[in-house]
Amino acid sequence: MAITQSKAVSLNQRIEEFLLSRGAIKVGFATVETLDGGPPSVDLSYKLPGAKSAVSFAFPLNKDYIRPFLAKEDRSSHEKDDADAFAYTKALSWECADMLSEEGYPSKGTTANLKYRTEIEGWEKGQYPDISHRYIAVRSGVGSFGWSGNVGIKGFGTTIMLGTIITTAELEATDAIPEGEGFCDKCKICVASCATEMFDKEKSTTVTIGGVDFTYSARRNLSRCFMCCGGATGLHKSGKWSTWSPGRMILPEGDSDEELDPVYRQAIEKQKKRPPMPGGAKSTLKLHSQPDRVLPKVVLTCGNCQLICWGDKVETAKNLKILRQSGCVVQRPDGSIEALPPEEAEAEFNKMDPEHREAYC
Ligand code: SF4
Ligand code: SF4
User: Fold this and answer.
1) What is the whole-number distance in angstroms between the Cα of residue 220 and the centre of ligand 2?
2) Which residue's alpha carbon is nearest to atom 7 within ligand 1?
């Protein structure tokens, strides 16, 4: 349905008010024109044939829980906050989509993560999302890329969750944040926060969307993250700190698939032999589209590159210090986990039964 410019502006404003009044901190708009020429994951018609626009919004994570998570003092509070933010951004996007659909513009909400284009051969390796919240967020000016490739906002850093609504309404596009005016000062602390060193410190990658270039760090090999963020391993090669994962495999220095693929397969097999990690969070929120669905429990062991960056050099540096002093996690045969100073963790680990140890290194 075509609408006049003045109606489009007013619809933009109403959508923005709708989302801001429900906790979003920033809202932006992209159109098929401003997304033109971007990667396949900004093709709105993949999710909604006839889509004309996308609405992007950001919702904040609770920073009060992030430092205890980085310090390995409290995993569950941030896990719960993350699970709730995940469910809430999904629910909010569907609520907004329903509002637009009721007004005569068929629209669709999206899920915040974990939805992939599984029809692509080898999708597990690239984990291509059905829709890229990040690309739409940067093109619409909701946030900008940090060096890590996480999207952030001044005053928040990258401690945000993104949501997207896809609609047949013709909305007015908002501008991308100009280069150099975003939150990222290229301190590269995010690079140092990754136990498996996924980000290249110097080399960058550029993506062009709607004629605008966006640049962030080159990924050395995505499987470095899949192994670590997935919990298979978590020990930094210095042996001085770890993520919340009890895995102690140190990855090879090389970045070729030939080198990393066998390690990846081995890491996953080892992880399967471990007792389940205690804790984990299940969101108590009901999903709008599936109110009866019980959400799976999520065990978070990393996310450090996102959590570390608070958009303020001093605070971000403090976060890295906390992480580096947080010790190393070991898992007992009964499944319980404990964060110990690095030498103590190594000594405890070495005392364990070789059969138990085999599942971690
Ligand atoms: S830690 Fe944040 S501000 Fe520093 S380089 Fe990474 S994304 Fe940019
Ligand atoms: S989530 Fe963890 S493992 Fe993955 S890139 Fe970020 S810091 Fe590295």
Assistant:
1) 12
2) 146
